[in-house]
Design a protein that fits this description.
Layout (H helix, E strand, L loop, with lengths): L10 H8 L14 H13 L3 E6 L6 E6 L6 E5 L5 H31 L1
Antiparallel strand pairs: 1-2, 2-3
Helix pairs in contact: 2-3
């Protein structure tokens, strides 16, 4: 009998899922508190926010990013992915955005004084 709640979740799909080797579930406790704190501080410094959570099945990290790009987005990382490197890269992106923004403000201020 086919599962009518979600297309593609028929008996064959469910059968295959049972036999796929399951990895350890995502766990934020395994991620460096410093990496999380730094990313939250950097994104917060520009008025943005991070949402740290899990996918519905708990098998991956879900990181929602608000205020860094024009539209909010969510990235999904597996437990084997380098989540700390992702957070560091996100922090670096925010620092670059701040530098570009500040450079633009300086140019505008200099233009006004001429």
């Amino acid at each position: 009998m086919k599962n009518v709640n979600s297309p593609g979740n028929g008996d064959v799909s469910n059968y295959r899922r049972k036999y796929i080797k399951q990895s350890a579930p995502a766990n934020w406790e395994d991620i460096s508190a410093d990496a999380i704190r730094h990313a939250v501080a950097q994104v917060g410094s520009i008025g943005g926010a991070l949402r740290l959570g899990y996918t519905r099945d708990g098998g991956a990290f879900a990181i929602g990013v608000y205020g860094v790009e024009a539209e909010p987005y969510t990235d999904y990382l597996r437990p084997g992915d380098d989540v700390e490197a992702y957070l560091d890269e996100l922090s670096d992106e925010v620092i670059r955005l701040q530098a570009n923004h500040n450079e633009g403000l300086v140019k505008v201020a200099l233009a006004k004084t001429k």
